[in-house]
Amino acid sequence: MVLRAGLLGVGMMGRHHARVLREIEGVDLVAIADPGGDPHGVAGDLEILPDIDALIGAGIDIAVVAVPTRFHEDAAIKLAAAGVHTLVEKPIAHDIHAGQRMVDAFATAGLVGAVGHIERFNPALQELRRRIEAGELGAVYQVATRRQGPFPSRIADVGVAKDLASHDVDLTAWVVQSDYERVFAQTAFKSGREHEDMITITGRTASGVIVNNIVNWLSPMKERVTLVTGEKGAFVADTSTGDLTFYANGTIPLEWESVSSFRGVSEGDVTRYAFAKREPLRVEHEAFRDAVLGHETDVVTMEQGLRTLAVVEAALESARSGDSVSLVSG
Q1: Which domains does the chain have, with CATH numbers?
Q2: DSSP-derived secondary structure letter, 254
Q3: What is the pTM for the complete model shown?
Q4: Over 80: is that where the pLDDT of 186 sits?
Q5: Fewest beta carbons within 10 Å, which of 9, 92, 171, 329?
Q6: How many CB atoms lie within 10 A of CB 191?
Q7: Which backbone phi and psi does 177 adopt, to 5 degrees?
Q8: Could you tell me the CA-to-CA distances from 248 to 137, 144, 220, 231 in Å, in that order?
Q9: pLDDT tens for residues 209-232?
Q10: Whose CA is closest to 89, among 184, 164, 152, 198?
């Protein structure tokens, strides 16, 4: 079976979706819609349709929504009503109420609703999660992420928390397989915009892992690092390069008494792993395709996307109030 695919939005991210949709097996990109036209020239021989209604009218089985966040809900609700399985870019929606309506619409229709939290499909993080599951780190103590870089002019409708920190919240909970339980956050507004351009989130997962996410649009260098510290050492994943390195706790006794007296662990072997590095967006699309075909996959569900958005909104609430916020229901 070949799935007829439609794409809403061919901006900075949408152009990459167009390329991958044309490359993967079992999918045929048959329609593209963008009210702003085709700025990157990705349509090829396809007509650029004006809106979501025209996209649905093209007779599609699946859709990818890559328009600004504030438009996600309207497009997703219409796609659900039309019986179209849908992948929306992250974050799922502009707020949790809209996200919940999207979750409900796809659940009621019995359709696959997915969210593009692409970092889950980064080869370094997939390898990291596999190795943690295999017990190579022992007990997990802490996850610290750094996602920093210059301001992207393409983002206008949300701040750095929903645009970038949502990546780190999602990947952290996914890697340790435990949801955030409590968060405390601080934000800064340094570029004269309505939304925050810097956030630091500190928290703890339900399993007791300490988390720290440092995110900003104010750094002159780009950094995408996840550091996981545990019983047997520390993993460092660089998601910009797909590299994973393990720093093992030392097993050789320290003979220098003045050093051994204050060091909790000693330095051991350092291993940089070699493994296949497939493009994350392609792996994400294959997972979405397979989920639509009824296979077991690691696709990020709308329910999971909504949970991530709830954590980010709790962090923004914490930054406004100055208090920590609990995410435990009831």
Answers
A1: 3-119+282-301 (3.40.50.720), 120-277+309-326 (3.30.360.10)
A2: P
A3: 0.93
A4: yes
A5: 329
A6: 13
A7: 55, 45
A8: 9, 17, 31, 10
A9: 999 999 999 999 999 999 999 999
A10: 164
